[in-house]
Design brief:
10 strands; five-stranded mixed sheet; alpha/beta; globular; TIM Barrel; disordered C terminus
Length: 216
């Protein structure tokens, strides 16, 4: 089973991807499960996302006082900016706490690993050295690995994949397996002009459009 559990849609400030089209692209890329993990939002799930052959894991990415955190298998949006409170909220929903791109934060991720469930060891938008350090941290700490394309464009979907043996059609079953099973993490980096240029351009476009609306 092939999963990409770190994808952004138009409900993130730096992406324009439509949730329904994300599903179509994910199927074409041979994925079996995905999570749309928008920044501070679960609006992608405000209307049911349906797919007959793709399992959809409700998720969200939150900016905290100790860097970004992802919650998977959520029932409702997360609120606040304190790292430890966000982790508690995720677990109160029987969700999984993921530390994405662990070396894209101002604090040492070694201080946080005892509070998480899975560590993102391969992020397609991270530098090779950062991914290698994340893999080393996973081995050192014993925290299970997971990958994420961190896709903000359709092109990036599926560039980093977590593979597990077997196929699971129920979310509760998949959640248990992700926490316990051996996983194979593979993928490649996104080109810089895509990973940085497109997101920067999208953010500027949204700010410009917002400024025009405010002047009317």
């Amino acid at each position: 089973m092939r999963l990409d559990t770190h994808i952004h849609s138009k409900y993130s400030y730096d992406s324009l991807s439509e949730p329904v089209r994300i599903l179509k692209v994910a199927r074409r890329r041979g994925l079996d499960a995905i999570s749309i993990t928008d920044h501070g939002s679960m609006q992608a799930y405000s209307s049911p996302l349906r797919s007959s052959d793709l399992l959809i894991i409700p998720g969200m990415e939150v900016k905290t006082n100790r860097g970004d955190v992802i919650g998977l298998f959520l029932n409702e949006p997360l609120e606040g900016a304190d790292f430890f409170e966000i982790c508690d909220q995720i677990r109160n929903q029987q969700g999984i706490v993921v530390l994405p791109h662990p070396y894209h934060r101002s604090c040492d991720p070694e201080e946080l690993v005892s509070h998480i469930d899975l560590l993102e060891v391969l992020n397609s938008r991270s530098r090779r050295e950062e991914n290698m350090r994340a893999q080393a941290l996973s081995h050192k700490s014993g925290i299970g690995p997971i990958t994420g394309s961190d896709a903000h464009t359709y092109f990036e979907i599926g560039r980093a994949v977590t593979e597990i043996d077997g196929f699971y059609s129920e979310l509760d079953e998949l959640r248990r397996v992700l926490l316990r099973a051996d996983k194979q993490c593979s993928g490649s980096r996104s080109p810089y002009f895509i990973s940085r240029g497109c997101s920067f351009g999208t953010e500027m476009l949204r700010r410009f459009a917002g400024g025009l609306r405010n002047k009317r």
